[in-house]
Write a structure and sequence with these properties.
single chain, 368 residues, Rossmann fold, 3 domains, 7-stranded parallel beta sheet, 13 helices, 11% strand, extended, binds guanosine-5'-diphosphate
């Protein structure tokens, strides 16, 4: 009973001696490896997703993103079984160069649409250059502070870096799972640097291009093809000193759009100014999006565009598998460098080299 607090000056307070710990009933318990998560079947995922279970949805998305063949097999089955429950959302692509204010805007847009129509929002991304550590896009949920803690929002970073086609396909498959889980609004974010806009355009109903007012030559840096894809161009940071410049930029974009042929949808792309940061002009942007959706649903373009997208993804998937199968082929791989060197030395034409390689490839396929 040696303890300072057991001295008589601490009346009424005694510290009892501890008792010896009993020995472990099962001495092996401590060293046992941690139990792995039980293997789930495709049915487990499908059931969970259809019930709106976010944990299972996230895990299924991880399988979609995985390159392991076993994961891919389950993922494909889950996607196929979710497909009949998908399609009933509004899919909006949001693009802009780094610093244009995509995260700030998506945060504001997301809150707006959730308040406006209820439902659930999934924010996905396509960023083939993404290196998570740099947090270039959507890696850190903190970029969308309000949505990140919203109970009806699901934010998922871009699949890890890979070929643009591959990354985009995974995002498209994730859309299907999210829709089956009851998400009726999907935002797909991408960094506006060229090719990735085409990928986003191929999976959304409305493509929003975020622009900034610059130094008077706004239109120079932006490629014609990208402007032609936009269903709406929105000039961000129309606040404070920047307001007039933003309005001027909007006028320039409007003029430029007049020079393009009328889009297939029959809809004239609009140019609006807003401030994502101060929440100005947000309602007008979504009035535009909803008006567009109503318009193209009526004239049949909505379904037409979705059908075209399905077709596009069928061919994209085939192309990717063929390319992968060719370049990863154990006979072809070592031959590539050899043939390339011969072409560079002028000993073989490009076409002859390609023919040799393709013939070899088809040989290996035939033998299988
Ligand atoms: P992202 O790289 O496209 O995702 O752009 P961010 O949303 O991270 O925004 C880049 C910077 O622009 C941040 O410092 C924002 O605070 C700022 N910003 C975003 N929207 C606005 C806006 O509407 N007005 C002003 N003045 N600044 C904004």
């Amino acid at each position: 009973m040696e303890h300072p607090e057991n001295s008589t000056s601490y009346k009424g307070l005694t510290v009892n001696a501890g008792i010896e710990q009993p020995s472990s009933v099962n001495p092996y318990l401590k060293n046992r490896p941690r139990r792995k998560r039980p293997e789930r079947t495709a049915s487990d995922y499908v059931e969970g997703i259809l019930k709106g279970d976010i944990t299972l949805l996230s895990q299924a998305v991880t399988l979609v993103e995985s390159t392991k063949p076993a994961h891919q097999t389950i993922a494909q089955e889950v996607i196929e079984r979710c497909l009949p429950y998908s399609g009933s959302s509004i899919r909006v692509g949001i693009s802009g160069v780094p610093g244009a204010g995509k995260s700030t805007s998506i945060d504001a847009f997301g809150l707006h649409v959730l308040q406006r129509t209820g439902g659930k929002l999934a924010v996905l991304a396509i960023d083939p250059s993404s290196e998570r550590s740099k947090g270039s896009i959507l890696g850190d949920k903190t970029r969308m502070e309000k949505l990140a803690v919203h109970p009806d929002a699901f934010i998922r970073p871009s699949p890890a870096a890979g070929s643009l086609g591959g990354v985009a396909r995974k995002t498209r498959e994730t859309i299907i799972l999210c829709e089956a889980a009851g998400f009726d609004k999907i935002f797909v974010e991408t960094v506006g640097v060229g090719q990735s806009e085409t990928a986003v355009h191929s999976m959304v109903d409305f493509f929003l291009l975020i622009q900034l007012a610059g130094t008077g030559d706004e239109l120079q840096g932006i490629k014609r093809g990208i402007m032609e894809m936009a269903d709406g161009i929105i000039i961000n940071k129309a606040d404070g000193d920047n307001l007039e410049r933003a309005k001027l930029a909007a006028a320039q974009f409007r003029n430029a759009l007049h020079l393009f042929p009328a889009p297939e949808s029959g809809w004239t792309p609009q140019v609006l100014t807003y401030s994502g940061f101060y929440g100005l002009g947000i309602k007008e942007i979504w009035d535009m999006v909803y008006e567009y959706i109503g318009f193209v649903k009526q004239n049949g373009y909505f379904q037409y565009r979705r059908n075209e997208q399905s077709k596009y993804w069928m061919y994209e998937t085939i192309n990717e598998h063929l390319r992968h199968s060719f370049y990863q082929n154990p006979v072809i791989e070592p031959l590539l460098a050899e043939k390339e060197a011969q072409v560079l030395q002028g000993n073989l034409t490009s076409f002859a080299a390609a023919k040799v390689l393709l013939d070899k490839y088809f040989d290996t396929i035939d033998k299988k």
